[in-house]
Amino acid sequence: MRARRDPARTGVVGYVPGAYDMFHIGHLNILRRARQGCDHLIAGVVTDEVLKVAKGRGPIVPHAERMAIVGGMSCVDEVVTDVSSDKLVMWERLGFDVLFKGDDWKGTEKGDRLERDLGGVGVRVVYFPYTVHTSSTALRQLISAPRS
User: Where are the alpha helices (DSSP H) in 1-148?
Assistant: First the structure.
């Protein structure tokens, strides 16, 4: 299996997929850290449909707006629509060398599968510390909590 790689992407190409719903400091942290680990950073914004299947609910912020927010970050060289939970699909399309994820995936069934699948095509998976005190799930819970 061979990935298609844009010849304009030089050096180490990094990929950081995410929902980026209700953009917060955890999103900024992973994008900034990923930027330091590659020469060209591609951020993949997962579609509303993929999120509904993966998480059982859609995002608060629509896909086009999430694309604009992430694409407006100076640490991101390129923003693309991520169309699958299977990151090999995105590797075939983009040809990245390293994938960045939060360490909440490390040691899980999903993380082990990700490492095995991408390792099979020579892609490294690098984990960064998950920002525990802030997450889209926590923000969603806070917003929907009854007010006293």
Answer: 25-36, 48-55, 63-71, 87-94, 109-119, 136-144
